[in-house]
């Protein structure tokens, strides 16, 4: 049973555990190298604008750098910690953008782009179109259900990994996925068609 | 998967510099809170301001029940696609008014998918949309270069004749078909 719908671009899979984040330059550089593609994938599956993708990527890594000293391996794997930061950055981006528009960011990612980068991002964004559509189709769900569903169907995390990212237990993830399936199935049959194979994995 | 290698390297350098010379504690806020006006919203907001100050409709040429095009005194054009059968007329009218445009109906079964964008053109954003009307958009002709065509794709729900989403991108070759949602800005109600 495929984890993602046939037409969705599979996210990068982790072949090994990321190095723990460290606040020193060398330590963080290794962490950055291991996670750059995953973070870029996370943002390009959620925005279709190269400049916004660059800004979000930069913000996520700056947040990770600033929080690296507080990373506690007992509370989750590095990728779960980083996905948690990415989710917070993304949520703040959409929630606060209008009211904080005058605030100047310390590191505007889009100013680091050249034309070749933009072209590469555009191609990458095009390739992630199916995944973005999937997140848009989930928008009718409540936030707790949607965030679980998106981590599993869009980002390709296992229910166990999604539980770590969200700081909830696996039973709750399982229950939310089942509720999402029920809600999507009841109201939006076309969406169920796209997601049912994924949800069957955990039912 | 394409990697923006220049961006990756420059961001690595910035992060390395930040790690080597951390900001004072007061300035080291959570960057998630250091928000900026997102490019997408900025563009739409700028368009909204422009609507407020521009004297509208210097020229109302091209109006029909199915579409309308007006020229603003800042040189931009405001197009309004009201019905699917207005697409050919709208395309013709835009050409008459100096915009090389092609308008297609979104086709999810289009075998060629999304047509290739003119490399690097996404930052020019020749079209901005109005929040409350998915068929309405402002076109800035000066952001379209020679040899480029503004491809506009309108999407319709089953049985409906008014578009529910319109998107655009600059292309060098006009495709025979295109899927919807091709732009970096997409108008949805």
Characterise the protein shown here.
The complex is a heterodimer of chains A (203) and B (189). With 203 residues, chain A is mostly helical. Chain A contains nine helices and no strands. Chain A has one domain (25-202). Chain A has helices at 25-44, 50-67, 78-96, 115-127, 129-137, 143-153, 159-166, 170-187, 189-202. In chain A, helix 1 packs across helix 3 (78-96), helix 3 packs across helix 7 (159-166) and helix 6 packs across helix 8. The longest helix of chain A has 20 residues, at 25-44. In chain A, 44% of the residues are buried. Chain B contains three helices and eight strands, in the order H-H-E-E-H-E-E-E-E-E-E. A four-stranded antiparallel beta sheet of chain B has the order 1-2-5-4. In chain B, a hairpin with a 2-residue loop joins strand 4 (127-130) and strand 5 (133-139). Chain B is elongated, with a radius of gyration of 20 Å. Chains A and B meet through helix 1, helix 2, helix 3 and helix 4 of A and helix 1 and helix 2 of B.
How is this structure best summarized?
Chain A is mainly α and about 200 residues long. Chain A is built from 9 helices and no strands. In chain A, helix 1 runs antiparallel to helix 2, helix 6 crosses helix 8 (about 170-185) and helix 7 (about 160-165) packs across helix 8 (about 170-185).
**Total beta strand runs of chain B:** 8
Number of helices of chain A: 9
The tally of structural domains of chain B comes to 1
Query: Helix segment count of chain B?
Result: 3
Q: What Rg of chain A do the Cα atoms give?
A: 17 Å
């Amino acid at each position: 049973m495929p984890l993602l719908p046939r037409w969705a671009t599979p996210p990068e899979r982790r072949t090994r555990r990321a190095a723990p984040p460290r606040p020193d330059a060398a330590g963080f550089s290794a962490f950055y190298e291991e996670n750059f593609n995953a973070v870029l994938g996370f943002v390009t599956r959620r925005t279709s604008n190269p400049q916004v993708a660059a800004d979000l990527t930069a913000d996520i890594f700056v947040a990770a750098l600033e929080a690296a000293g507080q990373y506690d391996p007992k509370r989750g794997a590095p990728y779960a910690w980083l996905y948690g930061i990415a989710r917070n950055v993304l949520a703040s981006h959409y929630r606060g953008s209008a009211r904080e528009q005058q605030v100047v960011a310390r590191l505007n990612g889009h100013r680091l782009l050249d034309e070749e980068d933009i072209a590469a991002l555009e191609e990458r964004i095009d390739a992630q179109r199916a995944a973005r559509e999937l997140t848009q189709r989930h928008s009718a769900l409540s936030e707790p259900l949607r965030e679980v569903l998106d981590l599993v169907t869009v980002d390709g995390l296992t229910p166990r990994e999604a539980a770590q990212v969200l700081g909830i237990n696996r039973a709750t993830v399982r229950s939310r996925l089942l509720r999402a399936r029920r809600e999507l199935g009841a109201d939006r049959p076309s969406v169920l068609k796209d997601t049912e194979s994924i949800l069957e994995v955990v039912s | 998967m394409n990697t923006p290698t220049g961006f990756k390297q420059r961001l690595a350098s910035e992060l390395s510099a930040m790690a080597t010379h951390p900001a004072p504690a007061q300035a080291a806020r959570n960057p998630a809170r250091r928000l900026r006006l997102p490019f997408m919203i900025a563009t739409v907001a700028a368009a909204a301001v422009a609507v407020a100050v521009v004297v509208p409709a210097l020229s109302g040429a091209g109006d029909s029940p199915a579409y309308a095009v007006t020229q603003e005194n800042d040189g931009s054009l405001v197009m309004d696609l009201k019905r699917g059968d207005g697409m050919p007329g709208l395309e013709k009218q835009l050409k008459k008014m100096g915009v090389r445009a092609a308008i297609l109906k979104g086709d999810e079964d289009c075998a060629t998918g999304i047509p290739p964008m003119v490399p690097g053109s996404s930052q020019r954003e020749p079209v901005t949309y109005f929040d409350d009307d998915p068929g309405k958009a402002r076109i800035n002709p000066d952001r379209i270069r020679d040899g480029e065509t503004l491809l506009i794709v309108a999407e319709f729900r089953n049985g409906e004749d008014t578009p529910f989403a319109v998107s655009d991108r600059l292309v060098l070759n006009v495709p025979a078909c295109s899927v919807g949602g091709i732009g970096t800005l997409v108008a949805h109600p």
